[in-house]
Amino acid sequence: MPKGEAMLLEMRNIRKSFSGVEVLRGVDFSLKPGEIHALVGHNGAGKSTLMKVLGGNYADYEGEISLHGDKIRLLSPRKAIDRGIAIIYQDFSLVPDLSVAHNIALGREPRGRLRGTIGHAILRRRSAKEAERLGIRLPMDASVRSLGVGTQQLTEIVRACSREVRVLVMDEPTARLAPAERELLFSTMRRMADEQGVGIVYISHFLDEVCDLSDRITVMRDGLVVATRPGADYTLDTLAELLVGHEITGREASRAAAPTSDASEALGATQLSVADRPPLDLAVAKGQIVGLAGLVGSGRTRLARALIGDVKADGEIRVGGRRVAHVDPERATKAGLSMVPEDRKTLGLALGATVEANIVVSALGKLLSVLGFVKPGSRPRLAEEMIERFVIRPPDRRKIVGNLSGGNAQKVLLARALGSRPVAMILDQPTAGVDIGAKVELHNQILAAAKEGAGIVVISDDLDELLDLSDQVLVMNGGRLTGSYARSDLTRASLLAAISRS
Amino acid sequence: MTTSNDTATDRVTSRHGWQWSSLAAYALPIIFVLLLIIFSLAVPYFATWANFGNVLQRNSIIGIVACGMLLMIITGGFDLSVGAVGAMSSVVAAVVIVQFSMPLGILTALALGLLVGAANGFFIAKIGISPFVTTLATQVLVTGFLFVGTSAQPVYGVPESFTVLGLGRVGPVPIPTIIFAAVALITWGILRFTTLGHYIYIVGGNKAAARLAGINVERVLMTTYALGGFFAAVAGIVLLGQTNIGQPASATDWPLTAIAAVVVGGVPLSGGVGQVWSAVLGTLLLGIIANALNLLGVSPFWQPAVTGAVILVAVGLDSYQRKQRERR
C-alpha cells in the first residue's frame, strides 16, 4: 500500500467452503485506520461471508487475519467483539419496545442498588454520553418502535460502538433510508473515521453512493477480489463493468420482438400511488413481458401487492382493459390477475396441503365449481394437466407440497397462477432459490404463457433473468419508476448501472 | 443431470413419506380396534348391543359439537363458546316451545347458534381478535345473558314427546346418533365437495397465501364459525331432548371435550389438515374408554385423569413422529 501506512486490519488468503462448495477462494482485504472502505459485489459474490468471517461467525475459515499487526484467530462472535470488531447486520437486532437508552445498554445494564436490579438513571446517563461521543443525537427515552428507520440505524451504531470499536462493518446500511437520513448517516460515518480513527467497512449496492463516500473500493465477484483501488479511480460505469465481469457487450435478444403495439392492454394502472409515494402509470399489453428491476427495497414488491390489492393504494387499476373497483386480491383474481408472490413458503403455498389442493386454489371458484360445489373430477384433472405441463417431480398430485424441492414447489405456484387462465400475471422472483434445470423449465412456461396472450410482469434480482424474459424493463427506485428501456437497448452492465443509482 | 438427480432424491423421500404417512394415518383406527377387542374380552357386558347403543347415545352430542370444532380447527382456530351456545340453544328452545310451538323453538335456537357463531367469525376475521380471546369472551357473554334471562333457574314444561329427539330410537339406533351421523355426513360433504371446504384447508394452511391466491379469507372464516355455532345449537337441542329441562348451567365441558376428541383423532391445532373420521373416531375412542371404566366399576372421578392421559399419549405419539420426520 502507498506510503507503507500501518494497516488496522489485514485479511490474507481467506477461504471458506460450505459443504464442499468454496464460497471464498483466497480473498485479501485490508483496512486502514480512519478509512471508509466500500465492499461491492453481486448477491453471492461472497461479501457477506467475508464479513461474517470477520465477525467470528465461522470458526473453520482458512487464512490469516491480523489486527494492528497482531495475528488473531476469530473463532467466535465474542472474540471479535472483544477485539473491537463491530458488525451491524441488515436486519436490526433492537428490542422495539425498549427505550433507545435501554437498547444501547442491552446486555450490559449497570447494576442498581440491589443485586438483580438495574440502575436506570446511570444507564440513561451512560447511553446519552456514548451517543454524544459519536456526535449522534438520539431521543433517549423514546421507544425504538416509534422511531424512523434512520434513527434506528443510528441507535444500532451507538450500541455497536459503545464498546471500544476499531473496526465497524455496516451491511447495506442505507437500503431503507430516506435521502436526509442517508446524509446524516454519511456525516456520522465520516466523523467517526476522521475523529476517532475507526476503520469502516461499508457494503452497499448503491454504486454512486459508494463512489462519493469511499476512500477505497473493493470489488468482489465469485468469491474472489477483482479489484481494490482508491475510490476516486472509479466511475459508475467502470465499477459496473467490474461487477459484471468481462461480458459487457449485450446478449443477443433471446426472444422474439415485442408484440405489435395495437395489442390490447392486459394490466394497467393510472395514477397509482402506494403509501405516500408519488403516483405512477403502468401498462402491460397482452402477450408482453415487462421486467421490473431495482434494488432490494426499491418498492417493486409493494407495487406488485398494490396491483393485486393486497396493500392499499390510490388510483385506477385495470385488468384486461376493465377497471377493477375497490381492488382486493379476490376481486383482482376474479378479474383475471394472478400473482406468484416472492416468498413461496410464507406467502405462496399451503405447505401442509397436497400438490393438487395448491394447484387448483385459484381456479376453484372461477372455473371448477357450480354454486359453491366443486365439479366432480375437475380438481384432479386440472392438477394432472399442470403436473404434466410443468414436469413436476414426483408426478403425484397427492404429495404434500412441503416435501417438494424448491424448484418443484415453485412450479406448483406458477401452475396455480396459470390454472386460473389469467389475463395478466405478476411474478415476484419466480425462480429464486431453484436449480438451473427447474429455472429453464419455469422460463419456458413463462414465455409460453405470454405467447398464449397473458400480459406478464416479472420482478427479479437476477439481471440475466430479466434480460432473457422481458420485452421491456422498467427500473424502480425509492418507490418510483425511474427508467424504461426496450430490451434491445439494454446490456447487463447498463441495466446494472441503471438500478444502482440512488 | 440435475433433473434426474432431483427425481431420484424425490423418489426416495416419497417412498419414506408414504411409509410414515400411511402408518400415521392408520394409527388411530388400529388403536381403536385394538381397544375394542381388549375391552370386549376383558370388560364384562362391554360387547353387547345394548352397551354399544348406550355408548353411542351418550357420545353423540359431543360428536356433533366435535364436527363443528373440526372445521374451526382446520382453519387454524377453535371455539370455546360451543358449550355456552349449546346451553343457550337448549334454554331458548325450551322457553319458545313452552310459550309457542316446537318447530319455532327449534328454529329459533338454531338461528341463534348460527348468529353467535357468525359473531365469533366477525370478531376473528374482520376485527382480528384471536380465536381464543374471541370465543372466551362470547362464551362468558352468552352464559351471562343466559343467567340474567333465566335468573339461573332451569326452564321446565317441555312436553314429554320432545324426548324422542334425545332418548328415542329407530330400531336399535338412538336418534341422537342418527343426528350425529347426519352432521358428520354434512361436514364430510362440505370438506369434500364444496369450494368452501377446499378453501377451509388452504386458509388453515397459509392465510397469507390464501389471500394472495384470491380467496376471500374473511368470508371463509365467518362461514366456518357460523357453522360451528350452528352445530353447537343442534347439539343443544338434542341435549334438551335428553333432559327435557332447559338448564342454563349445562354443557360447560363441551368445548374442551370436543377439542380433545378432535386432537385425539390426530388433527393438529396448527390447522390446514384434518378429516371428519378423525373427529368421529376421536369422540368414540374417548367414549368407549369412559364406558369401559364405568363397567369395570372404576370411580367416575377417575375419568378426567384417564382422558387427560389418553390425550397426552395419543397426541404425543403423533407429534413426536412428526418431529422425527421433520428432523430427517
From TrEMBL, chain A:
Q: Where does the source fall among the domains of life?
A: Bacteria
Which PROSITE patterns does the record match to this protein?
A: ABC_TRANSPORTER_1 (PS00211), ABC_TRANSPORTER_2 (PS50893)
Keyword Nucleotide-binding, does the record have it? yes
Q: Does the keyword Repeat apply?
A: yes
Residues in domain ABC transporter? Answer: 9-247, 258-501
Its keywords, alphabetically, are:
ATP-binding, Membrane, Nucleotide-binding, Repeat, Sugar transport, Transport
**InterPro entries per the UniProt record, alphabetical:** AAA+_ATPase, ABC_carbohydrate_import_ATPase, ABC_transporter-like_ATP-bd, ABC_transporter-like_CS, P-loop_NTPase
Give the family from UniProt: Belongs to the ABC transporter superfamily.
Q: Which PANTHER family match?
A: CARBOHYDRATE TRANSPORT ATP-BINDING PROTEIN MG119-RELATED (PTHR43790), GALACTOFURANOSE TRANSPORTER ATP-BINDING PROTEIN YTFR (PTHR43790:SF9)
The protein's name is ABC-type sugar transport system ATPase subunit
Origin species, per record, is: Pseudorhizobium tarimense
Lineage at the top is: Bacteria, Pseudomonadati, Pseudomonadota, Alphaproteobacteria, Hyphomicrobiales
UniProtKB/TrEMBL annotation, chain B:
- Does the entry feature the keyword Cell membrane, yes or no? yes
The record's Pfam families line, in alphabetical order, gives: BPD_transp_2
* Claim: Transmembrane is one of the keywords in the record: yes
Q: Which residues cross the membrane?
A: 23-47, 59-78, 90-117, 129-153, 173-191, 220-240, 252-269, 276-295, 301-320
Its predominant location is: membrane
Subcellular localization: Cell membrane
- Keywords, sorted A to Z: Cell inner membrane, Cell membrane, Membrane, Transmembrane, Transmembrane helix, Transport
InterPro entries reported for this sequence? ABC_transp_permease
Query: Which CDD domains does this one have?
Result: TM_PBP1_transp_AraH_like
Membrane topology is:
Multi-pass membrane protein
Q: How does it assemble?
A: The complex is composed of two ATP-binding proteins (LsrA), two transmembrane proteins (LsrC and LsrD) and a solute-binding protein (LsrB).
This molecule's function is given as: Part of the ABC transporter complex LsrABCD involved in autoinducer 2 (AI-2) import. Probably responsible for the translocation of the substrate across the membrane.
Which protein, by its recorded name, is this?
Answer: Autoinducer 2 import system permease protein LsrD
